[in-house]
What we know:
Elements: H1 6-12, E1 16-23, H2 32-43, E2 47-54
Parallel strand pairs: 1-2
Helix pairs in contact: 1-2
GO molecular function: glycerate kinase activity
Pfam families: Gly_kinase
GO biological process, one term: organic acid phosphorylation
Amino acid sequence: MQYLDLGSFIKEADLVITAEGSLDGQTPFGKVPAEVASRAKKTGKPVLAHLRMQSTKLPSCWPVRRKMPYA
């Protein structure tokens, strides 16, 4: 992520979007969404994670179950 200069992208963003196949107990130990969220939190930016599945044991995650309409 240091090669991408992720910090400058986050700094300029209004919303940070990341993706992962599964958000689970392993996420805090090296998965990209955890690092992205951590960096975004330092700048006060909201984060949206697109996931295939999520562990139900993660209390800090709120699922969005509404489909977005096509523009």
